[in-house]
Design goal:
Layout: E1 14-19, H1 24-38, E2 42-44, E3 56-66, E4 69-72, H2 75-87, E5 93-105, E6 111-113, E7 117-126, E8 129-138, H3 145-162, E9 169-174
Antiparallel strand pairs: 1-8, 1-9, 2-3, 3-4, 3-5, 5-6, 5-7, 7-8
Helix pairs in contact: 1-2, 1-3
Length: 182
């Protein structure tokens, strides 16, 4: 099923709770537009995160879940996802793979790649609440999960503003206690 990852971990590393009074379909469309816009974009890491790494660039690549795999979110996949969402009355979950690519700018204009971060993201929609579950698959976490959540929320709100919809309000970011520590 497009948008659902059947192997999403039961134990996740962070959970963000939001409130949003916009219709679920409008919010889902805004999330898809946001992720599509971020795909293959690069930013100076210092503009997104508190970091001690000078001249570090961050790039985003997203995939949309489909069963046990992820498809790169290119324009064809975006259209497939929009059509799939339009056919259904309500979609409660949408899962993404988020790859954060880090590069150091060098004096000779070349870029030196650093270790990437791989995240699984699950948006859960229960109007007026939205939950984002984050599982850090691997990487160095140069961008913390809190910074990732805040950046994504800010970008989603830009898209919601364009369609004159109510914003996504971040209420809390939590790190669940692992089961083995209970």
């Amino acid at each position: 099923m497009l948008g659902f990852y059947e192997n999403f971990p039961i134990i996740f590393h962070a959970k963000a709770n939001f409130s949003c009074l916009s219709p679920i379909k409008t919010l889902q469309e805004s999330i898809i537009r946001t992720i599509n816009n971020l795909n293959s974009q690069e930013y100076n890491l210092n503009t997104i995160a508190l970091t001690t790494v000078p001249d570090c660039r961050i790039g985003f690549e997203f995939g949309i879940a489909e069963g046990a795999t992820f498809n790169y979110l290119n324009p064809e996949e975006v259209e497939r996802l929009r059509k799939s969402l339009a056919k259904k009355e309500i979609v409660l979950n949408i899962d993404f793979l988020c790859i954060l690519k880090y590069y150091l700018s060098q004096a000779d204009k070349r870029r030196k790649p650093l270790k990437f971060d791989y995240y699984l993201l699950r948006f859960i929609f229960r109007r007026p609440r939205v939950e984002l579950r984050i599982f850090h698959e691997r990487g160095t976490q140069r961008l913390s999960m809190e910074e990732l959540v805040e950046f994504l929320a800010k970008q989603i709100n830009v898209e919601l503003t364009k369609v004159k919809a109510k914003p996504l309000n971040l209420e809390a970011i939590m790190h669940p206690v692992p089961i083995e520590n209970l």
